[in-house]
Amino acid sequence: MFRTSLSRWTSNYLGFLPNRLFHSGIRNNLALESSNYKVNESHGLYGDSTVNIRKATLSDYNTVIAIPNQTNTTDHLVDRYCSFISRKTNTGYVANLDGKDVGFLLTHLIDDGSTLVLDKLRVEEGSDNKKIKKTVYEHIKQTQDPMIKTASINFDPKMTDTHALEEYSVKDWNLVTVKTKETFNTKITDLHEKLKKHSIQLKSSKRLFGRDVTKIFSYPESHQHLFKDERLLKSDILYKPVASNIDLVMDKRTLVIGSNMTSSPAVLMSFGTYSYTTAGLHYNLSFHGNMNECVDEHLFIHMISLLNRGNKNVTFEIYVDDAKDMLTVQEILQIYSFQKNKVDNRNNVEWYEKCLC
């Protein structure tokens, strides 16, 4: 009875959202997929050891996941490896040391092919961390257009060599933008009850589709009100607001909400993407535009979209342009039983880029 009524209640707000889960089982997907192509290898010699680099395939899933995550962030790769590797604009690299796979790096080619994002770094514990990362990076430099810029996320300047693969220096890496990040947690059962108790009337907010985002991207004058430093953030990756990025931004895991769309200075957009982790459901949510109103509507819609996607814990990882805007988000989330994660919050998150040459 509860599920039936809840489903009907949810559809009043989000009839456009499918009830089924997209998460259909990674192992089953891997069993059905295979890839056969000639692998180009790059060799780096360190003493008596040889590091070989090859392109990752779907069949590398178990090997890659066994390598520890190095980025000190939530590990989305366990759930999303197949979709990441299958995307044409992505390439995964596996580092093999003396017959053992010891490293992995995922790259995303975005911005009309002008930016290569370095992501999902993994290196085996006990191996020569810096040498393996350097070999992967040198391989990328040899196989990519030297005019491409590489981009990397950095939560803490002291950790940049972990994320960026090379030793950090202000001279080499240019700061692109800075966001404020915080994470909040709750139980899915508590969220169910709070959403029923604190329902709100939507005034100006609605779901946006590819055609809507295309229209927004086609008007550069709107970018200054929406996208800080001319960058759109979705799932830890910064995109330029250009047409070629729309399919990358609007994937099937992503829900985009917009409000006040007819008034450029008042427009607010939010991009939410879910994934499954060992801790439960994880939701990466970024806000762009005017945070003075409709934030509650955006959060309400995003929360409702998760009701049929998890049965344990929910973590919201939220990014805003200004720290003061996070206070508004926090006040609203507390109404719906979310608690601020005091351990995982890093406040200022920075993105850097440099020329690959």
Automatic annotation (TrEMBL):
Pfam families: Hisat_C. InterPro entries: Acyl_CoA_acyltransferase, Hisat_C. Residues 204-321 form the Histidine N-acetyltransferase C-terminal domain. It comes from the Eukaryota. Gene3D superfamilies: 3.40.630.30. Coiled coil: none annotated. PANTHER family: LOC100145250 PROTEIN, N-ACETYLTRANSFERASE DOMAIN-CONTAINING PROTEIN. This is Histidine N-acetyltransferase C-terminal domain-containing protein.
